[in-house]
Amino acid sequence: MKKYWIKRIIKYGILGLILVWATIFIYDYGRKSYEDYVNRHENDIEWIEENIQFVEDYKIGDNIFVVEMPDTLDISHDLYREVVQKKIDQLLIDNYRISSPLILYDPFLEDEGSVNIYFHTGEKYKFEYYVTTDSIATDEDLIYQRMLDADGNDSLVTKHYYTLTGFVPGKRNNLLIRILDQNDEIVQSENFILNIPES
User: Fold this and answer.
1) Which of 15, 45, 165, 196 has its CA 20 to 30 A from that of 104?
2) What is the Cα–Cα distance from 174 to 110, expressed in whole angstroms?
3) Do residues 117 and 177 lie in contact, with contact meaning Cβ atoms separated by under 8 Å?
4) Phi/psi at 71 (5° precision)
5) How far is 48 from 37, CA to CA, in rounded Å?
6) Helix residue spans in the chain (DSSP H)
7) Under a CB-based contact definition with an 8 Å cutoff, are residues 107 and 84 in contact?
């Protein structure tokens, strides 16, 4: 009876080892095949454009989008920027407003403490923002960061396309934005919560 159980244990032990080995082999073969597939398309612009996308990341916040692409894709930074900018231009066909702007988390993979924000206004306005990880009871004492043109003057525009910095990774960040008229009167303000991922 003991021999029977010993034979059975050895038999199932060997069978278990074969299954573990087969699983590892299939996983490695599948991963290598996928990597080869991605590498074959590294210079295929159409394939790259189809495989770099913006997807909503609910962990960061409502209506916050991040770039999604194959992990093993190895392309130049210039080509990556070109493809991402083309994707952004396609998204901007829609009319985003200050109350529901297009917000992209670090789309160009340059600053993990930044977001890009895009929206349009019917008239020319100035834009200011404030980022904090603290709770905000009132915004009266806050010092907003105003967006300026290339000459250092207030930027009065209808197309508001900005890179906002100062977000703290691993924290809940409050983003306050507002537009002002030429007399610095506040026209509209909005508040967004972003949970910026840790580096």
Assistant:
1) 45
2) 21
3) yes
4) -60, -35
5) 12
6) 2-40, 45-51, 77-91
7) yes
